[in-house]
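hi!! sorry for the late reply, been swamped w classes. u asked for the two structures so here they r. pasted raw, havent cleaned anything up. first the sequence of the first protein and right below it the tokens
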Amino acid sequence: MATNKEELSLLGVIGSPFVCRVQIALKLKGIEYKFLQENMANKSELLLKYNPVHKKIPVFVHNEKPIAESLIIIEYIDETWNQNPILPSHPYQKALARFWSKFIDDKVVGAAWKAFMTVDEKEREKNTEEVLEALQFLENEIKDKFFGGEEIGLVDIAAVFIAFWVPIFQEIGGLRLFPSDKFPKLYEWSQELINHPVVKEVLPPRDPVFAFFKARYESLVASK
């Protein structure tokens, strides 16, 4: 259990889906922390000290003890602060939540990014198909308002990338990554998620995120 005297900080970048995951978990728990903005082009000594292996964000620091990787951080937060549980209590349901959260990272995140950040048509098509195949599994899996039931849980937090970032990639790149007609349940879920009071408060403003990725994409196209 956490004590009253806490030193909590989060190293991250505004606009990162992985940092946003941790921010949602912290907000759900009602935990106050210090946000330390990183510059990934010129990584701070603090980041290199706390995450020397991957040198990536997010890094959550609790009383000088660093934890890296967004899904691991969320589990740590959930086990440290008991209020508003994020993972199910039943071992089987907990295992399923872990499975689908990892599935999103393994099958959706990488493929969506590759589909967006390539000008090779065959690569775009291949990765788009991978995303569509993965989303079909999630479309079949969602049974309630959220993956976590009536309240958001680990899978919903992991899938914020699908709800907020994938539509941005889709619009900028002229892709068909997340068509609402093909995935009606998942689309409805995505709207519920991004309009959830906690998520809405934590999500970065869409316009600057859109502008950032549009500039990245236009630079890619120009270099073709």
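now the second protein. again sequence first, tokens right under
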Amino acid sequence: MRKAYLVTVALFALAFSLASASDPAPLQDFCVALKDYSDKSAVFVNGKFCKDPKLVTANDFYFGGLNIPGNTYNKVGSNVTNVNVDTFPGLNTLGISLARIDFAPYGQNPPHTHPRGTEILVVLEGTLFVGFVTSNTDNRLFTKTLNKGDVFVFPVGLIHFQVNVGKTNAIAISGLSSQNAGAITVANAVFGSNPPINPDVLTKAFQLDKEVVEYLQKEF
């Protein structure tokens, strides 16, 4: 009897962990996010106010322009065009989003994490060197060189990156298991926080001279 009880508890625990691994399941067919919160017919669900279903049109489920290249003229040589609930209200409560990533030659999408979503990436053009690092204490690095048509997955919350190792522009599309997966770029968060992290903390954490830390904080 006790063994059966423990098995039942284990199964419920497993089911709960799977159910809570992504955005909450919607309780209705759709919930198109409202940008104008003054609408008295709005209902607050899953982080956004819902548009009255009677007022929803096909355009609420449409996003155009992903064929347009992003501007990669910046320090890292890449540009991410997000298609999430903030830019595409029809995604609200559906638990998915995507992004177009453009890379200049040798550009990179620097080490970052998505705290609320797993990412699956497909290369449309070019050659990318990608990878992710597992959590403490192993900190194991997994890397792969991807060519056109190749697919790679980055588990939720893990630090990962993509680098264009080719002499031409590269394009990738990423799907994410959240309507708003979030993004934390490691260098920006650590050295560019507002207000800044005390340099003494970073000096010890990274085993760097304080002058180096202060220089990096000015850069970010």
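hope this helps!! also noticed smth abt the second:
The longest strand covers residues 97-103.
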